[in-house]
Design goal:
By secondary structure, the protein is an alpha+beta fold. The protein is built from 22 helices and 13 strands. It has a single domain, classed as Orthogonal Bundle (Cytochrome p450), CATH 1.10.630. Helices cover 52% and strands 12% of the residues. The chain has a six-stranded mixed sheet. The longest helix is centred in the middle third of the chain and has 19 residues.
Length: 440
């Protein structure tokens, strides 16, 4: 594997914008990969009103996300997502973002995972108890329900009946209609679209009832406690609504996709599944995992990492340059759109041998000391790094371990699902598995 940092093509060439726009609309993963292959680590497309740059080298990604982060704000597409998410942690900027992040961070410290883990374990155990031996399970839908339940219990202290269904339905509608938020329309006109309006109102009602739920009063560990404690000072009602919604949506969908991809990969790589089961059998036996166990399941963690490499739920991230700046010798005019893509960099053969092979063991071989930090960035980086990273990793490892100990799986489909890039990277079809019992 070649890991020396040879920066390719610092002198960029321009690609005609019409063909790029056509390609990115038709097949975005292919278009971004093609752009990086044609132009190298700095690619440039001249659009009608602005310049677009794709940075694919870890050093340049670090410049965008970390070293020069104060010069970049979220890209226009996330800015427009405010119509759905309001001014929460995902969409706020500058000092406002910093203040929100400081207040919310305590709910996500690594030590907090000890409190969330029993909820993850109990929900997973209850969930898989509904499976019938030898039955067919749609893991994409199942993981979505499971992670939503866990998010409700962890952040809001309870999962009132019907909430999972209501959130799933409204969220599905909003995701389908997300392109609507990207049109240059005033917010008020978008609200005229009846389905959009209905789904937004439904989510609003859900967040309001979660906030009022008396059971949540007891949930001292939960996010809701932080929100309520600050409601007379730091947070307005609108912000509390925005945070509730952000954590409800961001807190389960990406992890559910990660798990659906993990199951698809495991079902098509029986040797990897067998190694994972060996590890879980030895480390856990029939116990539920503790926080210490989660650190002590290296192979299971590598399966998660390898899946995040090959099927990153966040497959590209956009930023807008506030002022003129320079990255890798390239002048970036203020107002330019800058992209970094997990999909592109995670498949770069300079950093990964056989990048299209699912091989969790590669993470044993990678020398962390010399490996470029931003050759792997499924959770982003810098001050906007995913606040839920520890939560997601703990949850994914716990669910894989609990299920793999008790069930064998095989795919009900001959081929792996293909990645379908929308807001997040989804499987293009349901991940259907046949599940058979290993132990009671
Ligand atoms: C596999 C699971 C997950 C992946 C791949 C993922 C990925 C990401 C990425 C790439 C970002 C940075 C976006 C950017 O900089 O533009 C981000 C931000 C964020 N994520 Fe996650 N995420 C996951 C799970 C979670 C969970 C479980 C939560 C909540 C508990 C969460 C809440 C958030 C929030 C609130 C932000 C915004 C942080 C900020 O700007 O300060 N995510 N996530």
């Amino acid at each position: 594997m070649q890991t020396n940092l040879v920066l390719e093509n610092p002198a960029v060439s321009q690609k005609p914008s019409f063909s790029f726009i056509w390609n990115i609309l038709r097949a975005p993963l292919h278009a971004l990969t093609g752009l990086a292959q044609e132009q190298g680590d700095i690619a440039h497309v001249k659009l009608r009103k602005r310049d677009l740059f794709l940075f694919s080298h870890p050093e340049f990604i670090e410049e965008v996300l970390v070293k020069q982060q104060s010069n970049f704000i979220k890209g226009p597409s996330l800015q427009r997502a405010r119509i759905i998410l309001g001014e929460g942690l995902l969409t706020s900027e500058g000092d406002e973002h910093l203040a929100q992040r400081r207040t919310l961070q305590p709910a996500f410290h690594r030590q907090r995972m000890e409190e969330y883990l029993p909820l993850m374990n109990e929900n997973t155990f209850a969930h898989m108890s509904t499976w019938q031996n030898g039955s067919r399970v749609d893991m994409s839908a199942d993981m979505m329900r499971l992670t939503l339940n866990i998010a409700l219990w962890s952040f809001f202290g309870s999962a009132p009946e019907g909430t999972v269904e209501r959130v799933s339905e409204s969220m599905g509608t909003l995701m389908k209609l997300f392109p609507l938020t990207q049109l240059p329309l005033p917010d008020a006109t978008r609200m005229l679209f009846p389905k959009f309006k209905q789904a937004s109102m439904d989510l609003r009602q859900v967040t309001e009832s979660l906030l009022k739920n008396p059971q949540a009063e007891d949930a001292k560990r939960a996010l809701i406690h932080i929100l309520k404690e600050n409601s007379n000072g730091q947070f307005t009602d609108e912000q509390i609504h925005a945070h509730t919604l952000t954590f409800l949506l961001a807190g389960h969908e990406t992890t559910a996709l990660l798990l659906a991809w993990c199951w698809d990969m495991l079902a098509h790589h029986p040797q990897v599944m067998a190694s994972l089961q060996d590890e879980v059998d030895v480390v856990l036996g029939d116990r539920f995992p503790t926080a210490e166990d989660i650190q002590n399941l290296p192979y299971t963690r590598m399966v998660v990492k390898e899946t995040l490499r090959m099927r990153p739920p966040a497959w590209a991230m956009g930023r807008e340059a506030v002022q003129d700046c320079e990255i890798g010798g390239q002048h970036i005019p203020a107002g330019s759109t800058v992209l970094v893509s997990q999909w592109v960099t995670h498949h770069d053969s300079r950093f990964y041998d056989d990048p299209h092979q699912f091989r969790p063991g590669r993470w044993y071989e990678i020398d962390q000391a010399s490996f470029p930090r931003y050759a792997f960035f499924p959770f982003g980086g810098g001050s906007r790094v995913c606040i839920g990273e520890h939560f997601a990793m703990t949850e994914a490892i716990a669910i894989l371990a609990m299920v793999a100990r008790r069930w064998n799986i095989s795919s009900a489909q001959s081929a792996l699902a293909r990645p379908n890039p929308s807001v997040t990277l989804r499987p293009d079809k349901n991940v259907n598995l046949i599940v058979t019992k290993r132990v009671e």
